[in-house]
Amino acid sequence: MRWPLRRAITVLSGVVVLAACSGHSVTTARGALVPSAVTATTPASGPTRASSATVAAPAAPERLITCPSTYGVVPESTLPPAPRVPLPAAGAALAWYIDSARKLAPLLAPADWRCTIGVGADGGSESMVYAPGQAPSPGSPAGASQMIDVQAEPGCQGCAVQLACSLVPAAAAKATFFGTTCRPRAAAERVTWLAGSPDATTGALHDVVAFEDPPGVAGTGRPSGGSNPANGVLVYDYSPAVGSNTALETCTMPGASHALCTVILNDFVAREDN
Length: 274
Description:
Blueprint: E1 37-39, E2 54-56, E3 64-67, E4 69-71, E5 94-99, E6 107-110, E7 114-119, E8 125-130, E9 147-153, H1 157-164, H2 169-172, H3 175-178, E10 190-195, E11 205-213, E12 230-239, E13 243-252, H4 258-273
């Protein structure tokens, strides 16, 4: 089953920032609930591809945390069954976070953190899971130095383009048509293309771009520019028949938590590719 868009990126070391254009926070749903294995990545100074090492996911009990959630359209009162998702083998310190109406796919993040989720009337969403005592401002990551943030724009075309256009030239080429302004990419931001190509701007596209915003660099990561690095992944899909669909996840945590960010971002990417 393909969940409503929620993209993922391999762990770099910090956070990913997504721009939404409809005034709501954005988080999307993912693909198949859990990959059969989690890819392990060796920490590096910049964006890296996942290594070939894998850790089999055990048949462990799931750990689900329901987040305070807001919706642009009142959800149905009858809830679907709670997802049953085993944690990855490296997930002893992790939990699954879900919205109260269970509209979005579960989000992997450190256990015992706090969270808030907003889903717009157009399906765009943002999920914020943050360290205790670091509550972000409404609709903004300001105030949080450690956060897992996921933004997704599966419907609003201008929003999807705006979210992707700073990293993806194909999206930037559509910005003028939608009246969207693309934020210039920070010079110190490190970018690695995991799928697709920056030279491909026409036809059907599937672009997966990893990024890292070092400490002090305000870039794509949401949040970024603080004392912790922000690592993330942007997934941009386009087809002439459907249009643009964008999702972005950022993991902003201390460098010592790089391995944990890797597990979280790899899960996000695996779901989007299913």
